[in-house]
Design goal:
alpha/beta, Rossmann fold, 2 domains, about 35% helix
Length: about 240
């Protein structure tokens, strides 16, 4: 049997892409062509964040936590987080962090149910989905938002475009709807998309020659399991 060597295209910011790659089975990685070509560059903002009368913070990504470390924000405020990775990053940065669900919808439902002391401040990137502050405020949990970092769009690198000409399947793990949109605009090559969530899959859209697989749950561990399954399938012919 002739094995098909897959190409693994990683489009997260480089540090995050390398962390994800390090979570994958080294034997599968060794049999694959790997290309890291970030489609987004995270740029923390330096303007001060006034928490005012806020009684808690909302973090929906580890990027927001890292950006918050660049400005003075009191660690005495509790942090309500989407996903285990974000909660872990917030704890490491010194906040008392609570994981409230795996995604934005679950966070909104959980906060409405738990009714923490408000008002709250959602520290987020310039590009965000979910209307968290508006939905919480509409449910009598006053929340405002503050943009704490930018997500600068980047083109696919020339190396990535060469990799996409390789024979065999091109597996692309995608973790955010915006990255899915940028990837869909960047290339018309057939891709095997590993999507973090239905929202990510929907943002990529229905593309001829492309197949989309959605992780069992919206977290890095499930994404890793999905990508390993796709890599193994490609190697098995």
């Amino acid at each position: 049997m002739t094995l098909t060597r897959p190409t693994l295209l990683l489009t997260r910011p480089e540090d995050a892409a390398r962390r994800f790659l390090g979570q994958l089975d080294p034997a599968l990685v060794a049999q694959s062509a790997v290309c890291i070509s970030p489609l987004i560059r995270i740029v923390p903002r330096t303007d001060p964040v006034e928490t005012g009368t806020a009684r808690g913070l909302i973090f929906t990504s580890a990027n927001a936590v890292r950006a918050a470390e660049h400005v003075f924000i009191g660690r005495d405020l509790p942090a309500y987080c989407v996903g285990g990775a974000t909660a872990s990053a917030a704890r490491q940065a010194g906040w008392i962090a609570h994981q409230i669900g795996p995604d934005a919808d679950a966070l909104v439902v959980g906060l409405i149910r738990e009714r923490p002391d408000g008002p709250l401040v959602h520290l987020r990137g310039r590009h965000a989905r979910g209307d968290i502050a508006q939905r919480l405020t509409a449910c009598d949990l006053p929340t405002r938002e503050h943009v704490i970092y930018d997500q600068i769009a980047l083109p696919l690198s020339s190396e990535a475009l060469r990799f996409l000409d390789n024979p065999g399947p091109k597996i692309a793990p995608v973790f955010s709807p915006r990255t899915a949109c940028l990837l869909a605009d960047a290339t018309d090559r057939p891709l095997v998309l590993a999507a973090l969530s239905p929202a990510v899959a929907g943002a990529f859209g229905d593309r001829p020659g492309c197949t989309i697989h959605i992780a069992a749950s919206p977290d890095a561990r499930s994404m890793g399991a999905l990508v390993e399954k796709l890599m193994q399938s490609a190697l098995s012919g």
